[in-house]
């Protein structure tokens, strides 16, 4: 089995910077992750499914996106707010953390 970017980001030279879970966590996932690489660049990807597939099983460095703003995350949050286990407060904290980091870079 190959290494999974979600469960072993360090094997890809990444660390988790923020994570958003939009599902109700009942035998499903709908997750966005923001990672930071060793150069300080932020990367992101989203994946969803039932409990059968492994989250992010088909993701690797070639198919995750550079993160340059939180626009997509904000839009996604407003579309998926209902049922999310990420609370409004957690969401606001994480988005502010990302915005601050991007501004200071």
Automatic annotation (TrEMBL):
> What positions does the domain DUF7574 occupy?
4-91
- In Swiss-Prot or TrEMBL terms, this protein is called DUF7574 domain-containing protein
Organism name: marine sediment metagenome
